[in-house]
Design brief:
This protein is α/β, with parallel strands linked by helices. 44% of the residues lie in helices and 13% in strands. Helix 2 links the parallel strand 1 and strand 2. The N and C termini lie far apart (48 Å). The C terminus is likely disordered.
Length: 393
């Protein structure tokens, strides 16, 4: 790998670091209630720190572990790196955390047998941020997911997937070079977008050869192919997890192609809710930064309409969900909204506020008869009749 990869943290990399740091803070004390030791695994750790002094994921994880161990929580971490030179730097960076963070030299696949055994006694969070898409072979990842699943442990995964690079390789593999876009998203990445990757290797990354039909589909533009591929990929992850969501990160708002996509997978509803709010905050900060200067001098807010969730859009979606699955808890309304296109677009508190307004307007009614309700209170459409079919069936 080019050593310049670790020279400085790139602007678009700050999103995944923010999400990792923000999520670990509530995650550790929450899963501590399960009564098992907690293991945070950085699967592709790198050097631990950038040359400009910015902390990498190993240091972010180590500092979170240190804070919660100070409150007597049984949490440890392991940071794995396969490159010997990078590992030497990593080991030195983590030296002051060695009592609770283990630095190991080896490839991810080599750690699977140990992880399988550890998962029987530990709650596990996997942070998967490889330098190259080629490190994300689906069968290897699924082995991790399924090995942990069969031991009945809690497992969550936050994974960085450069889907644009993958699709560029896919188009080259099916000889549709005319559809290859020119975009800044392909610059400053560990993967070379001009590589020629064999079909078998692409199928190994994707977890099947379904990508071929997507790449060959002349009715889809490049972004359409990305979305279709991600839909298929996340469906395969759902064989191991109950919830799989994603968040696309761009360098500039006007770029049509994302730098990468963060995929979050969990079996617990609270994980979805927490990650949604953090991703929503990150997205809004990005949009604000991109349009702050132009809005300062404009007569009207020029923030793109697709970035705004209008109250009417949210309330009509809530009404549709409640009408189609009645009675339904407030929590399930939140989850269904996240799974139908509102993930990272609106916060949990904003959803709850909209439900309260619908209760006050007597469009909905709660099982408690009150406007202020908790997540387990059920909702129905006011003055409804007839039997409703559950959307979750």
């Amino acid at each position: 790998m080019d050593g310049s990869f670790f020279s400085a943290k790139r602007p678009w990399s700050r999103y995944k670091d923010y999400l990792l740091q923000a999520y670990l803070e509530p995650y550790i004390p929450k899963v501590n209630r399960l009564g098992k030791p907690i293991l945070i695994v950085d699967c592709f750790a790198g050097r631990g720190q950038f040359d400009d002094g910015s902390p990498g994921s190993p240091l972010i994880i180590a500092e979170a572990v240190q804070r919660w161990r100070g409150q007597n929580m049984p949490v440890t971490a392991r940071c794995t790196e396969s490159d010997p030179e990078n590992f030497a730097v990593l080991e030195n960076i983590l030296a002051c955390h060695r009592d609770y963070v283990q630095a190991t030299c080896g490839c991810f696949e080599e750690t699977l047998p140990l992880l399988e055994q550890e998962a029987k006694q530990n709650t596990v969070f996997l942070y998967v941020d490889p330098y190259t898409v080629k490190g994300l072979r689906f069968d290897r990842m699924k082995r991790v997911y399924d090995q942990i699943r069969t031991s009945s442990s809690s497992v969550e995964t936050l994974m960085n997937f450069n889907v644009a690079i993958f699709m560029r390789w896919a188009l080259a593999a099916v000889k549709r070079w005319e559809e290859l876009p020119e975009n800044d998203a392909f610059e400053s990445m560990a993967d070379d977008p001009d590589d020629r990757v064999e079909r078998d290797e692409l199928s190994g990354i994707a977890g099947g050869d379904y990508w071929i039909k997507i790449a060959e589909d002349a009715t889809l533009d490049f972004n359409g192919k990305l979305k279709r591929f991600l839909d298929e990929y996340t469906q395969r992850m759902l064989s191991s997890f109950r919830y799989v969501t994603r968040f696309a990160v761009k360098e500039k708002y006007h770029h049509s192609v994302p730098k990468y996509v963060l995929i979050f997978a969990t079996r617990h509803r609270d994980g979805v809710r927490l990650m949604n709010d953090f991703m929503c905050k990150a997205r809004r900060a990005f949009v604000t930064e991109q349009f702050e200067k132009v809005n300062r001098t404009a007569l009207f807010d020029l923030t793109p309409a697709e970035e705004l969730v209008e109250p009417e859009e949210l309330s009509s979606s809530i009404m549709e969900i409640v009408q189609g699955s009645s009675p339904i808890t407030r929590l399930d309304v939140q989850l269904y909204l996240f799974l139908r296109g509102f993930f990272a677009r609106i916060t949990e508190s904003e959803i709850n506020g909209c439900i309260t307004e619908l209760l006050k307007a007597k469009k909905l009614q709660s099982s408690t008869g009150k406007f202020r309700i908790n997540d387990e209170a059920t909702l129905t459409v006011a003055k409804q009749s007839g039997t409703q079919r559950s959307l979750f069936e």
